[in-house]
Amino acid sequence: MLLLVGLGNPSPENKDNRHNIGFKIINAINKNFGLSKQKPKFKGLLTTGKIGNEKVYAIKPLTFMNNSGICIRELIEYFKIDSADVIVFHDDLDINLGKVTAKFGGSSAGHNGIESIDKFIGKDYSRVRIGIGRPEKKNMVTEHVLDSFTDDEENSIMELINNIVEYLPVLIDKKLNLFSSKVNQL
User: Fold this and answer.
1) Do the beta carbons of residue 8 and residue 66 sit within 8 Å?
2) Upper half-sphere CA count for residue 70 (Cβ side, 13 Å)
3) Residue 186 three-state SS
4) How many Å apart are CA 163 and CA 165, to the nearest integer?
5) 126's torsion region: left (phi>0), alpha (psi -120 to 50) or beta?
6) What is the pLDDT of residues 118-154, one digit of tens each?
7) What span, in angstroms and rounded, lies between the C-alpha atoms of 177 and 114?
8) Which are the contacts of 184, defined by CB distance < 8 A and separation ≥ 6?
9) What does residue 47 show for φ and ψ, rounded to 5 degrees?
10) Which pLDDT tens digit goes with each residue over 171-184?
11) Which of 31, 36, 117, 145 gives 19 a disulfide partner, CB atoms 3.0 to 4.6 angstroms apart?
12) Residue 5: in which H helix or E strand, if any?
């Protein structure tokens, strides 16, 4: 069993902002692979189904970014999913817009959602870091992540999401480097 997690903030005013890229990816995965209808469970919106031969749960935590770990811990304890079988999709300021880096473990790099997950389940899980670019000035970081993508950026992000969905079976096989290189071939 695998758990796919998309990070974001659940309030309607955050729906299209950069910080919610994880939610957009889970929505695309749900639609493309025909996962079940979203149900509110474990402090999130949960879907389930199969991708290839793998049983998959996908969740969008409704706890807001800073408390995402609470939702994840409850779910993995209930379904007895090993943290090594968790894959988290999240925004990353240190990666150029429209690029992806997949890795296992590591530092949160100051991402509050990742810090929360680390606190509740440890660091032994996979992360798909989605590049949203960094603003020119450090004091504009909060505004940048909570701002919506421009029309040009949105087009680039939709292409990236389509690539992520296309190569998801590679990610599920835990071929992280191959997944990153395939997705980044835009």
Assistant:
1) no
2) 11
3) coil
4) 5
5) beta
6) 999 999 999 999 999 888 888 888 899 889 999 999 9
7) 20
8) 99, 100
9) -130, 160
10) 999 999 999 999 99
11) 145
12) strand 2-6
pTM listed for this prediction: 0.96
Contact (Cβ atoms closer than 8 angstroms) between residue 91 and residue 147: no
Give me 84's structure tokens. Answer: 């090594």
Cβ(88)–Cβ(164) below 8 Å: no
Using the structure block, give the residue that is written with the tokens 């835990």.
174
Which residues contact residue 107 at a Cβ distance below 8 angstroms, ignoring those fewer than 6 apart?
none
3-state secondary structure of 117: helix
How many Cβ atoms from other residues are within 10 Å of residue 130's Cβ?
Answer: 27
Contact 121, 73 (CB under 8 A): yes
Annotation marks residue 90 as catalytic: no
For residues 66 and 112, the answer to whether their CB atoms sit within 8 Å is yes
Give the sign of the dihedral formed by CA 12, CA 13, CA 15, CA 20: negative
